[in-house]
Every structure is written in structure tokens, then in C-alpha cells.
Specification:
The complex is a heterodimer. Chain A is an alpha+beta fold. Chain A is built from 9 helices and 20 strands. The longest helix of chain A is centred in the middle third of the chain and has 18 residues. In chain B, helix 3 crosses helix 14 and helix 18 packs across helix 19. The relative contact order of chain B is 0.15. Classes of the chains: A alpha+beta, B mainly alpha.
Chain lengths: 378, 531
């Protein structure tokens, strides 16, 4: 069921904004989700700049992933939003309230922002129940008891963190963050320490729970599949700056920036000639996007995802001949590296179903499926 | 004295994101700097003292045949005792951790307890029974039996934590038992063995009471005689300089030999317990050997003390009651424990939570204290007070407590570091984000996590004070006796019957908590990994 949900989510970005029935027991009344506005945030450690003017707008109820390689400054950004780190310049506004702008600084304990750190960071001396109710006044503790059930850990209330698996610890950390009815939930690479086999399941459940709770969520990750799979908005952070912000679908298919495109998914970048609304490259002819460039002429850079490179077993009109260089078998599909006879070209990637068997050195014929994203040379 | 147990458990930080902020640690850094300066006071005083006595006088006092004689005595003792301890400690640790020795848990305790018995009590119990135990060989016997656990403890811990798969792989590659033991097991424990040997040498350099009883002359006994009986400050100072230099050389040598710790650890989760080696027909022989060792190291001192208590002459000499002595001992121990732990707190927090070369250097500098024997710390403080401070605090409780706090600071630091590592900054941040103010976080998160480790640091110092003799003899307030000094005074006057109960009480106070503390430090890494 969650599988289907994930699909729907990708198809309908922003679906959750303002919706989200509190079904099985969301966090209950009084829960006020809020949007986050980050502008011009600058932060350096010593001489090393970590963030160089970050602007980011996170709508109420959205699930935003901040995607970037390690060292891109994404965790620093998250810690600034949470209030653990002071920034050098810029402002952070949550739900219309200024949290930090150089003059005002709201301390973390007054921000109402739930924080789920890497590896959960549960309090080792407290039981699951006590961890979850840590941030709730004593007389209201019983109100959050249902959160343990919500994250699927009913019956484990009396366990200590070291008696839980990694995935269970993450769920407790999530319940603990939700217990304070946060305006925003921050997830700092919460799944990276889990086994690959666990990761997908926990990730889906967490996304589902947060969706039920209708909480504005910011997830920090270096894993593109993770960002594509759960978020309805992705901000790509590179060397301290945001290079692109978009919903997963357009970020993958029609990225605004080549650097951002290369951080998400496999990609072939080719030089092409634009002519009559099509791009002509060493692999053949393909329709192009965005519409504005169709009337232009001249050389351009063309981005083709591997699934846009279609392979055929036989020669035909309009097909370009190539050779299989390497196969990476992934089970459900396979990534084929192909080489063309023209000199000076690297190998290109194509995606084929997993049940098609190709052998290295075998000749193959290529067509392209459009539209390909192009950037014209200026 | 469970230095070694603590050394080994020196904590692994777990997911504590070291703060990179510079400004916020400045205050902490300054306080730590102050602590480091206090710790190095005795060394500074020693240099001032040498200056006061005249550089030429000191130099000519060093350049005497006596120095060479003492050096020879110290070195030949250190080499032989350290070698014996390395063999005994490593061998017993391997037997307990890696073989199917019957009753391993019991042996693990019995082999460590001798460490809790003060060396001068062991020395007393042997020499009071037989006049043959004296001089060089007497010193070798007594010291080996008293301090081999300093090697046993770190090696046992390191074997426990090392990956047994390496030994299995070696067997798989066709290496025999002996070859595997030598190449892999000893290799894995190398750093631990070196660390243990370092502690053994430092104890030998600092020991006074045991050698005095055995009539074996070393730097420490000679310094004591020169300063407390001959009142020859210049000569004591000259010998102290040589002794401190010797300690620093040993410390530096160990650091060099340790090299870069090249032990790659496998994920704890993936680790499994090795199938213990079967002793087979060797079981009986090994059991007899261990029994003999425990009888000599633990049984004999206890039995001898009980014998003198029951059979020795009573009420020969005047002295304070055992209750009064125990009371003062506990008072001094508790104060020193609190002061040392407080001093270690800023240094430990700085070391665990903040990064930076300057901070690491500061932490290392505090380890120099290890190389300065308690006798020299006490003499330096006493001398400085008399010469430059008009006798301020001389032979008063504050100075004695300060001396203890400096001497046992490294112990407190080990405990504090372990405890700070239990409470990573990340947890405090999470608690803050859950709406808790600073004080609430301190009370609800930091206190419960750090508390046990701080208590352990306090206890380590407390126990060391209970069995401390040398510095206490010099600095103890007039008309006050501790368990150690009253025992010493009876023992010196051959009132063995009166000395014995003091010895037994010291053993009882030190032995039981040492065991509990050892267990605490053993568990630390596991707990850290699990949470």
C-alpha cells in the first residue's frame, strides 16, 4: 500500500499541502504546521565557507529534501534552522515568526521544531515511552502514548534503546520529535545508518507517518533515490549554494541547471547541433525542451537520461550503430555502457529491462526518445 | 590503583559531532590552561629549587658515583620487573580470555585484586616472615607480585575487544599455535602491553615504602633520606631532577614505541566470540601455576597480616585509634577525589567535545604528571611553601589534598573522559529541540549520563589516596595519622601486631571497590557501542 502511495506522491507533487486527514491518530488537535523561509544564509567555519547565501522556501505541509554530497553544507543548514548553530548573515523565518536574523535569536527550545538526528540519538538512560514523552509536560504524558503505536512499536514501551534495532530506534526518534507537536520536523540523514534492506521500509513508513501528521518536513540526504522517493520538493545544495529547487519529476526530466541534473540520477551529456527544433548528436536526432530553444540554431549541450537511449537488436533506418562496452546488471533493470565508432566520444549509458541479455562487444543500434533537455551555448 | 583498567577503557567517542565553534570554547580552554599550570607547578618549583641551590652545586651533586649507583639499581630493577610483569600479565590475560580455563570469571577477579594491596604492605608481609626477602631479589619478587596486574588489565581488555577472526585466519593460513600467538595475539595486544609496562616502570620509579622496608636503595629512597633526615635540599633536588628526567624519558619512549596505533577494528555487531583454545591435558598444570601465583600475590600478604594481627604483640606503642586514622584517610580521600575530578572536568570536556591541535597539546601536557613521582610533588610543594610563601599551608590538609589531586589527576581524567564521552553534544541538542531549557537538559540528560563516570573518577582517586604513603608522610598535618602513616610508624618500630589491622583495613577498603570499578570500566565501550 505504501508502495502505491509513493507512486501517487511522485505523480502529484504538493499533494499534501493543506490536506492530510489525521487518520489513525495524527498528533491530534493543536498541531500547527508552518512554512519555513530561509534567505541569504551565510556561515563559515574559520576560513572555510560552509554556506554562501542560501535561499529556500518551504511551503506549509510539504516534504522537502535537501540533497547534496557530503561537505555541501546541508547539515549545517539544518542545524541553523534548528537553532544549534548561529549563522553569520541571513534570516530564518518559521511560520511568519523570525527565528534568527542577526538581531533576534530564538533559542532551540522555543522554536517548536522537531529534530531527528542521524542514528536517532535516543536518550540511552530512558525507556522508549520516556524517550517519546521527554518533551511533554508530566501531566500530558498520557496524551502521547498513542505515538508509540503510530510508529508501529506498541508493546515495546518499556524497552531501552540498546534493546532496539536501528530501524526501531529511528521510529522512536520520530515519535519523540512528533510528541511536541512541532511546526516543522527536521530529519538529518536519518536512514543512512540503516541496512539497505531496512532502509526502504523505514523510509516509506516515516514518510507515511509524517504525511498523516501533516507536518512540514525537511530531510537532509546525500542519497538521490531517497530524495526522489519521498520528497515533493528537492533543493540541490552544492558547495554551499542551492543550485536548483523543484519537484522531483521536473528536477529529473527538465532540470534548470546542468550541475543539478548531474547530482540526480545517471545522465549522458553530449554536444549537439540544434536544427529545425531537433538536436542532432552522435547518437542521432531527438526532440528538445524547453520549448523556447526550439527555434534557435547552433551548438548546445544535450542531457539524456539512460532510459532515453533506446537499444535495438537490428539495424534500421535512422538507427545509429554502437557496441556494448559493459553491462551493470541490477535485477529489475540493467545499465548498458555503449561506445560509438566516432573517435573522441566517451561511453554512453542506456537502461534496459533486466531480462534482456547482452554480451560485451556485441553490436547494437540506438534511437533516442525525446524530449532531451538542452542548454544553448551563448 | 586501577590505573590500567581505566587507561584501557579510554573512551571511544561515539557519534559526538565535535563542535567546531571557536568562541564558545575559549572560557573552557582558559580554565583548562589554569589546571595544566597547577599540575605543572611541582615541576616549576623543582626548577626554582635547583636555581636556589645553585646550578653548579646541583651539577656537582649529580656528577657523583652515588648517582651512577642509584641509576644502576633503578634500571636493573626496572628492566627485570617489567619483563617479568609483561610475561606474567600477558600470559595470564591470554589464559583467561582465550582458553577454556575452568573458572575464568573467578580467576579474572583473583588475578587483579593484588593491585589493590599497597606495595609497602606486600613488602612488609614478606620481610616480616623471612629475613631472606631483602635487597635486589627481594625487590624483584615483591614488586613483580604487586604490579603485574598493571599489565594484565589492559592486555585482557584489549584481547576481549580484539577481533578473534584474525587468529582464525592465521590458523587457516597454516600458522601453528605458537606462531599465531606470537604474530597475531601479541601483535594485537602490543599497545596494551606497552601501556602496561609504562605504568609498571613509573610505579617502580615512584615507589618508596616497599624499597625502604627491603633495604633496597633507589632514587626515591635516597631523595627521601636526603630531604627528610639529612635536610640536604640541594642533594635531594639534584637527585629529583635525574628521577624526573628518567620518568620523562620512559614516557617519551613509550609514546615512540607505541607508534601510530594500527589496529583496525571491525564493526562490533559483526564480531563474534572466539572458540576458546582447549587446554586439554595442560589444564591441571595451568591451574596449579595460577593457584601458586594467586597464593603468593594475594594469599600471602593477607595471611601474613592476619597472622601478625592474631599472634603479634599488641599495645607496645602509642598511636592513634584505627577509627581516627580511617576517618582522616576517608576525609582526605574524599576531598582529593572531588578536587581532582573538578580539575579534570574542563580538560576532559575540552578533549572530547572540541577539536584542535592546541587543545590536544594541552591535554597531553597534563599526562606529564605521570612522570613525576608523588614524593617529588610533595617535596616541591613543601619546599616552595617554606621558602617563598612563609610556610603557608605547610603540613595542613589543603596542601596534602592539593598534592593528592595533582598526583592522581591522570586517573581522574581517564574517568572524566569516559563519562563525557557517554553524553554526546547531539543528545543535548535533541533535548533542547524538545523544548527543554539549559538547566533541564543538564538535569535530565547530562547528569544521568555523566554521573556514573564522574563517580568512578572520584572513587579511583579516593582509593589511590587510601593506599598512598610517600607524599602523605611528608605533608600529613601534625598530630594527624592516616591508615598508611600509622601503619608505617608501627611497622618501622617493628610493632607488627599493631601494624597488621591497619594493613588489613587498607586491603579491604581498596580491594572490593577496585573490583567493582574494574567491572564498570570494562562495560563502558560496550554500552557506548550499543546506545
Amino acid at each position: 500500500m505504501s508502495d502505491r502511495d509513493a507512486l501517487v506522491e511522485l505523480d502529484q507533487p504538493g499533494r499534501r499541502a493543506g490536506s492530510g486527514p489525521l487518520g489513525v491518530g495524527g498528533t491530534g488537535a493543536g498541531h500547527q504546521s508552518a512554512g519555513v523561509h530561509v534567505s541569504g544564509v551565510v556561515k563559515s567555519f574559520g576560513t572555510h565557507p560552509a554556506l554562501r547565501g542560501v535561499d529556500l522556501d518551504i511551503p506549509v505541509g510539504s516534504f522537502t529534501a535537501i540533497l547534496g554530497p557530503s561537505g555541501s553544507g546541508k547539515t549545517t543548514l539544518l542545524r541553523i534552522v534548528a537553532g544549534f548553530e548561529r549563522m553569520d548573515a541571513g534570516s530564518v523565518v518559521v511560520g511568519g515568526q523570525v527565528m534568527d536574523d542577526g538581531r533576534r535569536f530564538v533559542r532551540p527550545q522555543r522554536r517548536g521544531i522537531g529534530y531527528v538526528p542521524q542514528e536517532g540519538a535516543l536518550f540511552p538512560h530512558l525507556t522508549v515511552a520516556d524517550n517519546v514523552s521527554f518533551g511533554v509536560p508530566r501531566r500530558k504524558r498520557s496524551e502521547v502514548a498513542h505515538l508509540v503505536d503510530l510508529v508501529g512499536l506498541g508493546g515495546l514501551e518499556r524497552r531501552y534503546p540498546h534493546q532496539l534495532s536501528g530501524g526501531q530506534q529511528q521510529r522512536v526518534a520520530l515519535a519523540r520529535a512528533l510528541a511536541i507537536k512541532p511546526k516543522v520536523v527536521l530529519l538529518d540523514e536519518p536512514f543512512s545508518s540503516l541496512d539497505a534492506s531496512l532502509r526502504d521500509g523505514v523510509r516509506r513508513d516515516v514518510a507515511h507517518i509524517l504525511s498523516e501528521a501533516n507536518a512540514t518536513t525537511i530531510l537532509v540526504t546525500h542519497d538521490q533515490d531517497e530524495a526522489l522517493g519521498v520528497a515533493d520538493q528537492i533543493a540541490v545544495l552544492k558547495e554551499g549554494s542551492i543550485v536548483a529547487t523543484a519537484d522531483p519529476r521536473s528536477l529529473y526530466a527538465e532540470p534548470s541547471d546542468l550541475a543539478a541534473a548531474l547530482l540526480i540520477g545517471d545522465a549522458n551529456v553530449l554536444t549537439a547541433e540544434i536544427h529545425n527544433g531537433h538536436a542532432h548528436c552522435v547518437l542521432g536526432k531527438v526532440e528538445i525542451t524547453p520549448p523556447g530553444v526550439r527555434s534557435s540554431h547552433g551548438s548546445a549541450q544535450l542531457l539524456l537520461r539512460p532510459e532515453q537511449v533506446v537499444l535495438h537488436a537490428e539495424a534500421a533506418e535512422g538507427r545509429v550503430k554502437a557496441t556494448v562496452v559493459e553491462m551493470q546488471y541490477h535485477g529489475h533493470d540493467a545499465l548498458v555502457r555503449i561506445g560509438v565508432d566516432a573517435p573522441g566520444h566517451p561511453a554512453f549509458s542506456a537502461r534496459i529491462p533486466g531480462d534482456v541479455a547482452l554480451s560485451e562487444g556485441q553490436p547494437i543500434w540506438v534511437t533516442l526518445r525525446g524530449p532531451g533537455r538542452v542548454w544553448t551555448d551563448r | 590503583m586501577t590505573v590500567a583498567a581505566a587507561e584501557v577503557a579510554s573512551p571511544r567517542t561515539f557519534h559526538s559531532r565535535r563542535r567546531r565553534g571557536r568562541a564558545r570554547s575559549t572560557g573552557l580552554f582558559l580554565v583548562s590552561l589554569l589546571v595544566a599550570l597547577v599540575l605543572l607547578l611541582p615541576l616549576a618549583f623543582l626548577l626554582v629549587e635547583a636555581q636556589g641551590a645553585g646550578v653548579h652545586t646541583v651539577a656537582s651533586l649529580i656528577d657523583r658515583p652515588l648517582t651512577l649507583h642509584l641509576l644502576w639499581n633503578t634500571v636493573r630493577l626496572a628492566v627485570v620487573v617489567t619483563a617479568l610483569c609483561a610475561v606474567l600479565g600477558t600470559g595470564t590475560a591470554w589464559l583467561v580470555e582465550r582458553t577454556d580455563l575452568p573458572g575464568r570469571r573467578v580467576w579474572a577477579v583473583l588475578l587483579v585484586v593484588p593491585l589493590a594491596i599497597p606495595d609497602f604492605v606486600v613488602s612488609f608481609s614478606w620481610s616480616s616472615l623471612s629475613t631472606a626477602v631483602t635487597g635486589y631479589w627481594g625487590a624483584v619478587l615483591v614488586m613483580t607480585l604487586s604490579v603485574y596486574p598493571l599489565v594484565y588489565l589492559p592486555v585482557a581488555a584489549s584481547l576481549r575487544n580484539a577481533d578473534p577472526a584474525q587468529e582464525e585466519v592465521a590458523h587457516g593460513l597454516g600458522a601453528g599455535r605458537l606462531r599465531t600467538f606470537w604474530r597475531i595475539t601479541v601483535g594485537q595486544a602490543r599497545v596494551a602491553i606497552l601501556g602496561g609496562c609504562l605504568l609498571v616502570v613509573l610505579v617502580l620509579l615512584a615507589e618508596y615504602g616497599a624499597f625502604e622496608i627491603l633495604g633496597y636503595q633507589t632514587f626515591t629512597t635516597e631523595i627521601f633520606t636526603e630531604s627528610e633526615q639529612a635536610f640536604n635540599v640541594a642533594a635531594a633536588c639534584a637527585l629529583s631532577l635525574v628521577l624526573v628526567a628518567l620518568g620523562l624519558v620512559v614516557l617519551a619512549g613509550e609514546t615512540l614505541a607505541r607508534g601510530r596505533g594500527r589496529t583496525t577494528r571491525v564493526d562490533r555487531m559483526a564480531q563474534h566470540r572466539a572458540d576458546p583454545l582447549r587446554l586439554g591435558r595442560w589444564t591441571a598444570v595451568v591451574l596449579l601455576a595460577l593457584l601458586a601465583l594467586v597464593l603468593l600475590a594475594l594469599g600471602l600478604p593477607v595471611a601474613s597480616s592476619i597472622y601478625w594481627w592474631v599472634a603479634g604483640p599488641q599495645q607496645v606503642l602509642d598511636g592513634v585509634s584505627i577509627l581516627s586514622a580511617a576517618g582522616y584517610t576517608a576525609l582526605f580521600g574524599a576531598c582529593a577525589g572531588a578536587v581532582a575530578t573538578l580539575m579534570a572536568l574542563p580538560v576532559g570536556i575540552l578533549a572530547i567535545r572540541y577539536d584542535g591541535r592546541l587543545r590536544r597539546m594541552l591535554e597531553r601536557s597534563t599526562y606529564l604528571v605521570l612522570a613525576i613521582p608523588g614524593l617529588i610533588i610533595a617535596l616541591a610543594l613543601a619546599y616552595f611553601s617554606e621558602q617563598y610563601a612563609g610556610g603557608l599551608w605547610y603540613q595542613t590538609a589543603p596542601m596534602l589534598i592539593l598534592a593528592y589531586a595533582i598526583m592522581f589527576f591522570p586517573l581522574a581524567l581517564v574517568g572524566v573522559r569516559a563519562s563525557v564521552a557517554q553524553a554526546p553534544v547531539g543528545l543535548e541538542h535533541v533535548a533542547q529541540s524538545l523544548g527543554q531549557g539549559r538547566l533541564a537538559v543538564l538535569w535530565r540528560v547530562t547528569r544521568p549520563l555523566v554521573g556514573p563516570g564522574l563517580a568512578a573518577a572520584f572513587c579511583l582517586v579516593f582509593l589511590s589516596v587510601v593506599t598512598e604513603l610517600t607524599a602523605t608522610l611528608i605533608l600529613v598535618p601534625i598530630n594527624v595519622q592516616t591508615l598508611a602513616t600509622q601503619f608505617w610508624s608501627y611497622q618501622q618500630n617493628l610493632a607488627y601486631g599493631q601494624a597488621a589491622p591497619f594493613a588489613l583495613l587498607m586491603i579491604a577498603i581498596a580491594a572490593v571497590p577496585s573490583y567493582v570499578l574494574g567491572r564498570f570500566f570494562d562495560r563502558l565501550p560496550t554500552r557506548a557501542a550499543a546506545s
